[in-house]
């Protein structure tokens, strides 16, 4: 199995920090039963880590079901409520309703017995990294303005250097000396031809 990691260059650190914050406050839908009653309570619960311990806090009690159809309806309702709560706390890439529908679909597949894909995380190796951003947007503008035709084709190294320097200056507007130092520190380029 090959897995391709796409790492956005600007927000990587923020996403990394958000991931650890998100681990501390995970919400999920819980079905609570009691041994002497046919009733099943549907709750939205949040894990809160305090030191080495993880405690569960009920965020919202959605309802109590007596039948399986009521239970299914309450679970679906709970997914929508949970998605709206999470979206109000921290906006997501997808709208809350779409996130809820994806959660419901995933739960149904799991209940139907679809085989889970198991991945050995220790066996994962980075095969290729794709950085999306400046080169895709400003690279097209660079070509449209005709900068790619300024230096003759036979001087491919100089053309490539000009392109990289322009992209570096757009992405990180510093002096020529700071740009040269950036190339040396990060890419091992000692001097620009």
What does this structure look like?
The chain is α+β, with helices and mostly antiparallel strands and 193 residues long. The chain folds into two domains: 11-116, no CATH class; 133-187, no CATH class. It has six helices and five strands; from the N terminus they run E-H-E-E-E-H-H-E-H-H-H. The strands form two sheets. A three-stranded antiparallel beta sheet has the order 2-3-4. Strand 3 and strand 4 form a beta hairpin. Helix 2 (68-89) packs across helix 3. The chain is elongated, with a radius of gyration of 26 Å. The model is unreliable at 1-24 (pLDDT under 50).
Short description:
This protein has helices at 12-24, 68-89, 96-112, 134-144, 156-171, 176-187; strands at 5-6, 25-33, 40-50, 53-65, 129-130.
Label this structure with key terms.
disordered N terminus, alpha+beta, elongated, 5 strands, 193 residues, 47% helix, 2 domains, 6 helices, three-stranded antiparallel β-sheet
Element order, helices and strands?
A: EHEEEHHEHHH
Number of strands: 5
The radius of gyration computed from the alpha-carbon positions, rounded to a whole number of angstroms, is 26 Å
Lateral strand order in the biggest sheet: 2-3-4
Low-confidence parts: 1-24
The first-to-last residue Cα distance is 42 Å
Structural class: alpha+beta
Residue fraction in strands: 15-25%
Helix content: 40-55%
Tally of alpha and pi helices: 6
Mean pLDDT across residues: 77
Global shape: elongated
Main beta-sheet strand count, sense and barrel state: 3 strands, antiparallel
How many structural domains in the coordinates? 2
């Amino acid at each position: 199995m090959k897995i391709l990691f796409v790492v956005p260059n600007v927000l990587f650190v923020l996403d990394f920090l958000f991931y650890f914050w998100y681990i501390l406050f995970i919400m999920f839908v819980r079905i609570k039963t009691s041994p002497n009653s046919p009733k099943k309570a549907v709750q939205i619960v949040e894990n809160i880590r305090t030191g080495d311990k993880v405690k569960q806090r009920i965020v919202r009690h959605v309802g109590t079901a007596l039948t399986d159809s009521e239970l299914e309806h309450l679970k679906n309702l709970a997914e929508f409520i949970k998605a709206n709560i999470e979206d109000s706390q921290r906006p997501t890439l997808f709208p809350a309703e779409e996130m809820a529908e994806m959660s419901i679909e995933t739960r149904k597949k799991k209940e139907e017995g679809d085989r889970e894909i198991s991945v050995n995380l220790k066996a994962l190796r980075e095969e290729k990294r794709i950085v999306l951003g400046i080169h895709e947007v400003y690279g097209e503008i660079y070509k449209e303005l005709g900068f790619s035709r300024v230096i003759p084709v036979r001087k491919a190294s100089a053309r490539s250097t000009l392109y990289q320097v322009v992209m570096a200056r757009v992405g990180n507007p510093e002096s020529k000396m700071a740009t040269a130092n950036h190339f040396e520190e990060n890419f091992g380029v000692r001097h620009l031809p």
